[in-house]
Amino acid sequence: MGRIRPGGGYRELRSFQMATVIYDATWRFCEKYLDARSRMCDQMIQAARSGRQSIAEGSRASSVSSQTELRLVHVARSSLEELLLDYEDYLRHRSLPQWAYDAPEALEVRKVRAENQSDKIDQFNRTDQSATRNSDDKHYSLYTRWIEQAEPSIRANAIICLIHQANWLLDRQIEALEREFIEDGSYSEQLSAARLAERNRKKQDMPDQSNQSDPPPLCPKCGKTMVLRTVRKGKSAGRQFFGCTGYPECSGSVEV
After folding, report:
1. What domains sit in the chain, N to C, each tagged with a CATH number?
2. Burial code of 60-83, b = ≥16 C-beta within 10 A, e = fewer?
3. Is 227 helix (H, G, I), strand (E, B) or coil?
4. What percent of the chain has pLDDT over 90?
5. What is the pLDDT of residue 123?
6. What's the whole-number mean pLDDT along residues 127-134?
7. How many angstroms separate the Cα of 157 from the Cα of each of 33, 76, 108, 111, 152?
8. What pLDDT, on a 0 to 100 scale, did the predictor assign at position 186?
9. Residue 88 burial by CB count (10 A; 0-12/13-18/19+): exposed, middle or buried?
């Protein structure tokens, strides 16, 4: 019997791929433009990391708990929302412009994901760590024209666009997980259903013993085999009982 619910596979998730780009871009942004000793620097890196790692942790936990997976995806979504506010604060506090949703620059960044929706860079051997690294680097390289810019406002705005995309993907992922939980139930419910199905299967494989009667009892007085008899007369006429085969020498009887 295979596993009831397989876990893992998070590297194929678009949300994880996007969160990885955001984490790497945030790490480089903070290294270049923020004081490494500042609380904001640490919080931004940790929020970006939590967004990525929570997706992976939730995917692995999916094999034993759909509730845990759903909770961790919510954690990832919340972490990226926190990071989004940090980038917006960075621009606002320095009086730097923030791109409008339909600004040409924002549209260019969003267009990258659409153009690479079926790109082969998503395909890799799970056991090949170098291939995994290459895949991450290739995803990052799709956005380097913005997130490697010398101008911090361009970097921050581009990462804001990426966070919006990741959040949109996570919202769709949460909806799918909630729908799956409603339709298929929790892991414990699936486990109970599988256990019941296995019991029914074993019951069907067992020989039918419904027509097999129990052997007659032995006489409590003499130990001989007893036979089923029926009272013919009196108040108890029609009542069945086991009578000793040694009757009339032995009058032993047992109620049915």
Report:
1. 10-198 (1.20.1440.60), 226-255 (no CATH)
2. bbbeebbeebbebbebbbbbbebb
3. strand
4. 48
5. 40
6. 63
7. 14, 20, 12, 15, 8
8. 56
9. middle
Rounded CA separation 252/222 (Å) = 8
Give the mean pLDDT of 53-80: 89
Sign of CA dihedral 35, 39, 45, 48: negative
Report the chain's terminal Cα–Cα distance, integer Å. Answer: 46
What is the token pair recorded at 161?
A: 């666009």
Structure tokens, 184? 């298929």
Q: Please provide the size of the chain in residues.
A: 256
77 close to 167: Cβ distance less than 8 angstroms? yes
Query: What is d(CA 58, CA 39) in angstroms, rounded to the nearest whole number?
Result: 27
Note the pLDDT of residue 118. Answer: 44
* pTM strictly above 0.70: no
Q: What residues are paired with 227 via a beta bridge?
A: 243
For 238: left if phi > 0, alpha if psi spans -120 to 50, otherwise beta; the answer is left
